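Fold this: Mediator of RNA polymerase II transcription subunit 11
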Amino acid sequence: MDPQTQNTSLQRLQNVERRVVRVLDIAGGVMDELASPSGPKKEFINSHCREFMQSMKDIQVTLREEIKSVCEYRPFEKCDYNARIANEICLQKLEYVLTQLDDLKKTADRYPSSG
């Protein structure tokens, strides 16, 4: 994740944090209204509940997008480390096989051929 994307992501998460605080304020306002001695005002409750639900949906969408973005982040995706290491191991194995074949040839050359 490049620094610009990371800053943007952090800004979106900070906005979500502010919206969560706002949603809690809305919920608290509804609770206060429900506990009102004169009884709750239906229009107040309805408008705040609608705002609460819409805010929750917006928060959920933003968090899903951020989670998806983080899951897609692969810092070593363009790294060829694994391929280089695999090639190095193969090279060492081939060098070992070649030394074994050289030793085998030397051993075979010490004995006279029977044919």
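The mean pLDDT is 86. The two ends are 70 Å apart (CA to CA).
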